[in-house]
């Protein structure tokens, strides 16, 4: 199938991230305030509507879907959505169906995810210390997540850990977490904290640990080889020769990775964000609901949104302020 979604900068859009809920069973300090107001349930797209929009994107050349949130696995009946979308893997129209999860529900769902065709999961984990984990997630329990990781590995899912780099919190865990992952054949990616949404009393600048020295820190312990692969995403990777594992870093604040961006993001209310770091979005819910079974208007709305995909984000902490700050939380757009 020829790619049909090409933006003004000649980037082929073949990757859709879908936030299926803005709700979560955790309240991570860098992601949410303690008293979050969530969307009324009636505002959410139904699972059938989410399926319909995803299917339309797939018919327009999207090859990879990542399901995220909020916490995707707390949405009621979400397994029926995975099972249904799995049909596009069987037909070959979709190459990959993945999800990003905090791991709390994986013990329950890992085998069903595998049966639906999911082969890789990203699990977010910022620390291996139980007390620190409780602090950073406010509501999370580490043993539950560990059981989820074990379940995912047991059913044969390939696991990647995502850790948000937080100053004064997990800097000293760089090597212990790398080793822990190596023992389980898990890849690890570190993410610089981005200025998304109001956090109540927390301050972004206080949280920011720049990853520009990460390579040299790893070199003190391992033989580090830079990898060229980018897969259209923001992560850069190195391989640690002693363990064979990949370590990635997502550095929106110290590098701009937008030139190769291949993705757009759908929220659980049907808004399409063409860039994580810009406010512009397109409403897909109205054209979808207006037109019954015919997808013409929905396709037109998608095409005209892609024509507006901006060149890049403007995140910047260099002036000791969180410039480029987004009013919405990461859980809204889907991380
Ligand atoms: C919003 S969460 C949604 C999926 C799921 N609840 C999870 O935690 O994996 C997706 C990813 O965004 C990351 N994240 C949230 N807020 C962030 C921020 N302000 N800067 C950088 N990453 C953030 C999380 O650590 C997580 O890896
Ligand atoms: S990062 Fe994920 S687990 Fe943490 S509060 Fe945000 S949505 Fe929930």
Descriptive report:
It is a single chain. This protein has 335 residues and is of the alpha/beta class. It is built from eleven helices and twelve strands. A twelve-stranded mixed β-sheet has the order 7-8-9-6-5-4-3-2-1-10-11-12. Helix 1 (47-59) runs parallel beside helix 2, helix 2 (78-91) runs parallel beside helix 3 and helix 3 (106-116) packs parallel to helix 5 (142-155). The longest helix is centred in the N-terminal third of the chain and has 14 residues, at 78-91. The model has no long low-confidence stretch (mean pLDDT 88). The structure holds S-adenosylmethionine and iron/sulfur cluster. S-adenosylmethionine is lined by residues 24, 30-31, 68-69, 71, 100-102, 124, 162, 164, 191, 193-194, 196, 330-331, 335. S-adenosylmethionine binds next to strand 3, strand 5 and helix 11.
